[in-house]
Write a structure and sequence with these properties.
Elements: H1 2-20, E1 28-33, E2 42-47, H2 54-69, H3 78-87, H4 110-117
Antiparallel strand pairs: 1-2
Length: about 120
């Protein structure tokens, strides 16, 4: 019963977004750069203010945030990670290594991604 009730509200939220969206507003594509780094690689951003996709994006983000925060490896932020690491009882010779993902979106195979989405 509860699940059906929730889905009715989610459909109403999406429908409201479609009804109030501006048909003259378009999505906005822009990019950002991390100027403090030596390589000024851009990060693509697609913004959907006042468009048909706005409420759908909000709903999907809400669902994904719930799933992500339920994972045992989830940290709310860098401070939480460092607090957790500081609380570990590690031997004095232990080392911690950090890695960073680079260019995740620019390396996605477009044809494969579109097939998966379809």
């Amino acid at each position: 019963m509860y699940r059906g009730y929730r889905y009715v509200h989610e459909r109403a939220f999406i429908k409201h977004g479609f009804e109030t969206a501006s048909v003259t507003d378009f999505t906005v594509f822009y990019s950002t750069s991390k100027l403090h780094k030596t390589s000024w690689n851009t990060r693509p951003i697609v913004s959907c203010p006042s468009t048909l996709l706005l409420n759908l994006g909000k709903l999907i983000d809400s669902k994904l945030q719930t799933v992500a925060s339920a994972q045992p490896s989830y940290f709310k932020g860098t401070k939480d990670l460092f607090d957790h690491l500081a609380s570990l009882n590690l031997p004095p010779f232990a080392r911690i290594f950090l890695v960073d993902a680079v260019s995740m979106y620019t390396n996605i195979n477009t044809a494969a991604a579109l097939w998966e989405i379809a």
